[in-house]
Structures are given as structure tokens and as C-alpha cells.
């Protein structure tokens, strides 16, 4: 693997004690030897060591894709050096992105080709329900007209974000069969639950219909325009920007009087100084907080306002995992119980921990549905 996928500065230095501990663990599972060096196969690492994807109905493509995570040079041998390097990689500050990169770097070359990208995306459950158009401008822009560009790690981190946005837009167009510039509320809900569920706090998901009724003025009713669609998604992606607007208003108010409540008018005035924030996004935000306060009070609220604690409730999922790397995992034959009450989807995780003082790193991986 080239320096594009692993930087010494971003990996934790393994001490002698750590190495001894890792060696003991490694030797319990490394039953093969080549040229005097012990190793385990990638499948053994995943199934024997992690105890993951065990059974008679496991899709071999899924097993091969996930096994490639630790097999950096794809030689089918997990040596002690790879074992230790992978443990260090998991503790890197950008470990989730680096692990995702290794999934796509199928041949261990240190870069990703269009064929790599297409192969992995086509193996996901979302692709079956929302087939991605690989002849789109997105692909041409990132991989070139002849699909010959080789994507580095840093470029990949941005492409991954752009891909999810483009996939969501393609889903909107799929439901807008008559090219009217709008889709039904039902289809809007499907897109959010299937492609953007990781951004939906439990409260928003539960009260989505009421949020839309309060903030969407599209005619006819129960129709979601493309403008509203993008505003809603941008709001979910930029909750932290909204929090900064609140803090800016609150700081100015602190010089006159103290109050944790910020009115919609105060918020709108300050939001003009923040790019990519629109009145429509703020309408949606205050529709959500209105319902939050109403639910908490148990009766109708006649004043629209927002408090700092509201942001934690409407972005509850994002601190569990870098949301852009989460993927829904459902298999007809093999299901894993979800890890948190905040997650509505079944997902699998990889936890690498050796002792109470170790840091847990949680990585949701892509899985193919048969």
C-alpha cells in the first residue's frame, strides 16, 4: 500500500507491550506458515478471529470484499506485520475513511479505478433498490470521459460524499417520472429512510409528516418540490452550521440580557451572514423545533423559538458514527442485531479491542444482498 492510504503520523505507535499482546492474539489464529513466517487467511481473520459472517448461507462476494480490509497487498496472507499495522490503522484519526478506501482498493495498488468503484457500489443493497447510473456526469467528472483516472485516498474521501449526494438526486429523478419537479411525500420518505436514514434523528423520522406540513407550502398538498427536497437534505447535513448561528445570536444577546431562547426572527437575521443557509432551511428547522417543544410541553406552542439543547435532539445520530460511511445492511439469510436504539437499520460493525484501555473503533461496512 502506498503512502496515499497510510501515514505514519496518523497511526498510533505500537509499544513493546502492545506488540507482545498482539503477538499472543495473532498466534492463536495464525495456523499457516510460508517461508518461515506464520499467517492466517483473510477469511480466517474475519470468520475465526472476529467470529463474523459464519454460516452456510454467506455470500462469497460479501466475504471476499470484507476480507480485503486487512489484506493490504491482496496476497491472501495476514502476517503479524499486517495484523499490527491494521490495528494501528483502526486508531488513526481518519480510520473510517481509510478502511472504506481499502474496501474500494480491490487490488492493493494505493489508488481506486472506475472498475473498483463500480464493483463495490454494485455490491451494495442500496444499488439493488436504487440502481446508480454509472454513465452520469458525476462519473465523467471524477473518473474522466474514458474512465481512466486513478483516484487517490484524499480524492476518494470527497468523491464518497459527492456520490451519496448524486445517488440521492438520481433517486428523486427516478420517482419524478413525469419530470414535474416534485415527488410524493411517500417517495420522499422512502428516499430519506433508504438513503439518508443515518442523518435522521429519531424524532424527525417519527414526526416527518408533521414537519413537512408545517414547513412545505407546495401546491398540490403532499407533493415535495425539488427545492424543498434539497433544502431538507442540506439542513440535515449542516446542523452544525445552524448551531453556530444560534451561538452567534446568543453571544450578542448576552451583552443585553440572558436567555437561552432564540426567536425565528433573530435567527433569520443572523443567518444572512452564513453562506449556504436559506430561509427555507430555517423554516424546516423551526418546524422541527416547534414540534419538539410541543411534544415536550404536551400542548400547542404559540411562539417559535430554538434552544441550544434542540440541536442535540435533531442531530442525535451523527455523533454515533461519521454518518457518511454508514450503510444499511440487510441480508435475506444473515441478519445482525442493531447496536443502538437510535439506529433504525440493521448494521454490522467491526470492533477491534484488546483490553480495557484500548480505544474501540466502530466501522460499518458494505454488505451485499443476495
Automatic annotation (TrEMBL):
GO terms for biological process: calcium import into the mitochondrion; mitochondrial calcium ion homeostasis. SUPFAM superfamilies: EF-hand. Keywords: Membrane, Metal-binding, Mitochondrion, Mitochondrion inner membrane, Repeat, Transit peptide. Residues 92-127, 163-198 form the EF-hand domain. Its main location: mitochondrion. PROSITE patterns: EF_HAND_2. One of its GO terms (cellular component) is mitochondrial intermembrane space. GO terms for molecular function: calcium ion binding. It is found in: Mitochondrion inner membrane; Mitochondrion intermembrane space. The keyword Magnesium does not apply. Belongs to the MICU1 family. MICU1 subfamily. This is EF-hand domain-containing protein. It comes from Rotaria socialis.
